[in-house]
Each structure stands twice: as structure tokens, then as C-alpha cells.
Amino acid sequence: MQNRKNIIKLLARILGGLAVVFFGMFIFAEGIPDLKEIENFQLKSMLMLLVFAAFGYFFSWFREKEGGIVMTISGILTGMNMFYHGGIGDTEAALIYALPFLIPGLMFWWVGWKVKS
Asked: Are 56 and 38 in contact (CB under 8 A)?
């Protein structure tokens, strides 16, 4: 059982790190010139959610359960943000943006839950 927890924790760290780095590079590369525009609310909201997810990811290295909850909430909010800006037609985009934070967050939460019990 301990081996399974370690594997899931390692996998969550790898997936979460890849998600934070990939979306961070994507948003910063695409959005740094657009941050000066006041009308670009979608980019600013995605940037805030990415910072929230990165905070949860780094926090989960020390406290898996709490960091996993923060990452899970960030994934849900990111998906809701995509639905808000794109409508129901952007279901695929909402999943693409939400799942990379939601899955590692749930994995961290599970590991933290198993360690406590």
C-alpha cells in the first residue's frame, strides 16, 4: 500500500509540474503583450487561476491534502472560466484547461487522505 501511495504521489508531482509549466509558458508567451490592454479580462482571469494552481502545486509538496484541494478547486474554476467566456460550445476547451489541474489535485488529495488515515 505504501508503494502505491509513493507512485501516485510521484505521478501527481510530475503531472502537476508539467501542467503548471506548460500553461505558464503558454499564457506568458501568448499574453505578456496583451496584459497592457484593460479589456483583456479573460487573460487576466486565466493568469490569476494559474497562479492559484501553481500555489496549490507547490503547497502540495509539503501538505498533499491541502495542496490537492487547492489544485482541484483551481481546475474546477478554470473549467468554469472557459465555460463563461466560451459558452457550452467550448466544452472541449474547458476540459483541456481543467483536467491538467483537476487530476493531479485529486491524486494529491487522495495521497494526503491515505496518509492521515
From this structure: no
Helix H or strand E encompassing 32? none
Q: Return the DSSP state at 87.
A: -
Over its C-alpha atoms, the chain yields an Rg (Å, rounded) of 15
pTM of the full predicted structure? 0.84
**37 Cβ neighbours under 8 A, 6+ residues apart:** none
Helices (H), the chain: 2-31, 41-60, 64-86, 91-116
pLDDT in tens, 52-105: 999 999 999 998 899 999 999 999 999 898 888 877 888 888 888 899 999 999
User: CA of 101: how far to CAs of 26, 42, 57, in Å?
Assistant: 15, 18, 9
Question: Taking a C-beta distance cutoff of 8 angstroms, is the pair 100, 57 a contact?
Answer: no
- Give the span between the Cα atoms of 103 and 5, in whole angstroms: 15
